[in-house]
Amino acid sequence: MKTKFINIFLLVVGLMLGACSDNLNTEPTTSTTSEVVFRDVTSAQTAMNGIYRYMYTAGWSVNWSAENCGLSGILLTADLMGEDHLMADPGQGWFWYDYCLDVQMDYTHTSGHPYAFWNFFYTSICNINYILATENTLPGDPAEVKKLMAQAYAMRAMCYHYLIQIYQQTYVGNEDAAGVPIYTEPTTKETIGKPRGTIKDTYLQINADINKAITLFEEVGIESHEHASHIDYYVANGFKARICMTQNLYADAEQAATEALKAPYARVATVNEMKGMNNITMPNVLWGMEVIAEQGSGFEGFFSHMDADAEGLYASSAQKCIDASLYSRIPQSDERKGWFRGKLEKDGEGSNFSYCQLKFKMANYSNRIGDIIYMRYEEMLLIKAEAQCMQDKYSDARLTLTELLEQRDANYAEMLNNFTDSKNYNSDTNGRIVSLMDGILLQRRIELWGEVGRLFDLKRLGLGYNRDYEGSNQTTALATDPGDLRFVLPLPQSEIDGNVNISDEDNNPLY
After folding, report:
1. Residues in contact with 177: Cβ distance below 8 Å, sequence separation at least 6, in sequence order
2. Does the pTM exceed 0.85?
3. Domain regions of the chain by residue span
4. pLDDT digit string, tens, across residues 20-46
5. Topology at the third CATH level for domain 38-266+451-506
6. How crowded is the C-beta side of 269, counted as CA atoms within 13 Å?
């Protein structure tokens, strides 16, 4: 195990607490003692709030910190590695080489994404494990202790789920392939690094953690979170729905998504209510991070990479755009067409650029901030519809999809009627939309553009893509096959050097 991850809780958490929002019940402190952090459940929840703060903190690499802006930067990378999201210009290189699928050799140093993503998730896991180690000893209201531990178990499941999706191929058909090291106890300087195990081993831990989280939430009585940044019963079920989809456990995914959709504070939002996609008070937000002025990260923030109208920031010269083929599939009657520019006669500055995205905008240009949304009600509808369709429950899937589309497209009924009842889908992502499953997957690509990481869907669905088609606006034309080696990041060299149980031969193959 890399020494940077060891005992990081005692080194970092005190600094993190003072940086969190007052709305998350934090207290400024410079204490680095576990006795203070874990003196009671209230203090331990403050530590958990510090882990939530990690989700949108930059600086997970030695250099290039601007493109390593926490979970949102990781999801942006996974989106750009697909076919729906492109960069109009290389800019200073941030995210460009991910878009070009040319980052595998970055594993040799500590500035690129292979290192930064590994560091981000294992640092989070290390800190979570310190919290979970107090499950049976932490003073305080037993119900509050259970709610805290439920948050920690769910967060650990999420971290391992992203790790295995980033550093390996999909679950189905690769169960015995190498997984990622699993740590469930606090680590010390003497901790010996764990081996990779298998994908199956990794998912056994993920499933155990998320089920434990849900059980704990149920034991204390299902309640809504006090703040959108907190994981609650409904968010944990959202995690489970995602996890089950990657394992083709469609009945379980449907059940979990259905539970997530019961959140009393969430519903489908109109396109107008989502303007800017930058406010956790939107009625469709299940989980998101409130970013206050003091926490604005400016040049290193997610919106600096997305909002081309943020003068002087990265996106103003390296615009994020939608693929022309996908844009052409959005009907004129669909309000989401307005999330993007169309084809312009002449490209100008900022967002006045053909196919430039307008979906994500800063909430405040003076301090360069916006809230970060990580889970929406609409995603759960799309998971539920896909899971139902995969089980041949076509009528149910149509009803589920209708709940979304009736708020998006005035002509949705006509469109739905054109789909045949089939769970088969086109292996050509630029091909015809014929089946109900084709339609559901297309709606997922449109609705969740820029949010959940297209790469993860390509992997679990066994799809490749071709960016080089007639009329393409892609600035890097390339084609990939299902299970392409470029879809998988190598483990960082620093992990191999610091872990006696992982050798160069254990690393992922390069393209």
Report:
1. 168, 169, 198, 199
2. yes
3. 38-266+451-506
4. 333 333 233 333 457 778 999 999 999
5. 1.25.40
6. 24
